[in-house]
Automatic annotation (TrEMBL):
Protein function: SbcCD cleaves DNA hairpin structures. These structures can inhibit DNA replication and are intermediates in certain DNA recombination reactions. The complex acts as a 3'->5' double strand exonuclease that can open hairpins. It also has a 5' single-strand endonuclease activity.
Database matches in NCBIfam families: sbcd
Lineage, highest ranks first: Bacteria, Bacillati, Actinomycetota, Actinomycetes, Kitasatosporales
Listed CDD domains: MPP_Mre11_N
Name of the gene this protein is made from: sbcD
InterPro entries per record: Calcineurin-like_PHP, DNA_Repair-Maintenance_Comp, Metallo-depent_PP-like, Mre11_N, SbcD, SbcD_C
Protein name: Nuclease SbcCD subunit D
Family designation: Belongs to the SbcD family.
Keyword tags: DNA recombination, DNA replication, Endonuclease, Exonuclease, Hydrolase, Nuclease
Entry-linked Gene3D superfamilies: 3.60.21.10
GO MF annotations, alphabetized: 3'-5' exonuclease activity; endonuclease activity
Single GO BP term: DNA recombination
């Protein structure tokens, strides 16, 4: 059985103020054509369909067209919500849409209710495990503590229990949206740390034939059976070296996995340039970067006059400009984005405490207070989905 594994569409997202809706529409065209060309048996979309909980109308319209086109192909699609999505909004009409072969899995309580497909070798159970906010689902799963590993492990126990009750030889696929140990992050993923711990071990998916992961934007293989498809487009300059693809996965009669990367359309390549302004403008080796979206870091000892306009004469698609003068000691001149790059909310807050104290950082008790505050903010931001679920259950 063949699956096309994709994730992290982030419909509605822009790139440094550049509207990407046309590029996202081109990706949808490519997705539909790939399904048709390779005679795919099911499409797996592992979360972050939208870029935010309340997406702009053009993004919703593109999503609607994508679902109609996939349904018209007669190929089942299984889709889960990610941490950027509003699970409740994405899941509206799931039961009705499911009749058209589009299976939305946004309610954690239904994670052990698979979409079951069959081929000549028997059944394949596809389990959709949406993004789990630990503080909101701990009680639902009876997890021993509030952590990603605890709630995801408890959810996987439910899935394995359901699988054990099915016919011998039933193969299994799990869609999940999480940060799995060994994965490489980029600047464009939203932090999902809780209590300072966000990563879960790949072993949580033991016993499953294929885990189709979403959240990290780089296509990567954790192990033969656990893979990230990555985002179909680059959403930060940290992804300049990414090869954007989808996984075409074939599941053999005994659960054997073979996977092939299918490239996605690139609207414009990315380039990260560094050096003195005059060197960048004159270097013949950079001729191939003139049509790229450019992030330039200038190292001139003195800031040049009108640098953005001068860069644009050679690199008309320059989107980001930073300064890192040669020979200067660290004195706070780095841009705000540079200083924050790669740091969690917790680390940024602790840096602030150290700054206002003149170097004395937060102690363990204070770090605990900060951690609890960030956890509470995440809980509050997801409370709407929980309240809607409770209202629907009445």
């Amino acid at each position: 059985m063949k699956f096309l594994h994709t994730s992290d569409w982030h419909l509605g997202r822009s790139f440094h103020r550049v509207n990407l809706l046309g590029a996202q529409a081109a990706f949808v065209d490519h997705l539909v054509e790939t399904v048709r060309e390779h005679r795919v048996d099911a499409v797996l979309v592992s979360g972050d369909v939208y870029d935010r909980a309340v997406p702009p109308l053009p993004a919703v319209e593109l999503y609607d067209r994508a679902l109609h086109r996939l349904a018209d192909l007669g190929v089942p699609t299984v889709m889960i919500s990610g941490n950027h999505d509003s699970a409740r909004r994405l899941g509206v009409g799931a039961g009705l849409i499911g009749r058209a072969g589009i299976h939305l899995r946004t309610d954690p309580a239904g994670c052990a209710d698979p979409v079951v497909l069959a081929d000549v070798h028997g059944d394949v159970a596809l389990y959709g495990l949406p993004y789990l906010e630990p503080a909101l689902v701990k009680d639902e799963f009876g997890a021993p503590k509030v952590s990603h590993e605890a709630v995801l492990g408890a959810a996987m126990d439910r899935i394995r229990a359901d699988l054990a009750d099915r016919a011998p030889g039933t193969r299994s696929v799990v869609l999940a949206h999480a940060f799995v140990t060994g994965g490489q992050a980029s600047d464009s993923e939203r932090d999902i740390a809780v209590g300072g711990v966000e990563a879960v071990p790949a072993a949580v998916f033991d016993g499953i034939d294929y885990a189709a992961l979403g959240h990290l934007h780089g296509c990567q293989t954790i192990n033969e059976r656990v893979r990230y498809s990555g985002s179909p487009l680059a959403y930060s300059f940290s992804e300049a070296d990414h090869r954007k693809t989808m996984w075409l996965v074939e599941l053999g009669p005994a659960g054997e996995v073979t996977a092939e990367r299918i490239d996605t359309p690139v609207p414009r390549p990315l380039a990260r340039l560094r050096g003195r302004l005059e060197d960048l403008l004159a270097d013949p080796a950079l001729a191939g970067r003139e049509d790229s979206w450019v992030e330039a870091t200038l190292t001139d000892p003195v800031r040049p006059e009108d640098p953005m306009a001068r860069l644009a004469t050679r690199f008309p698609h320059t989107l980001s400009l930073a300064f890192d003068p040669e020979g200067r000691e660290e004195d706070g001149t780095a841009s705000y984005a540079q200083r924050l790059r790669g740091r969690s909310d917790q680390e940024i807050a602790e840096d602030f405490v150290a700054h206002v104290r003149g170097g004395g950082g937060a102690d363990e008790a204070e770090r605990g207070v900060l951690r609890a505050a960030f956890d509470e903010v995440r809980v509050q931001s997801s409370r709407e989905d929980r309240e809607h679920r409770q209202e629907s259950a009445r």
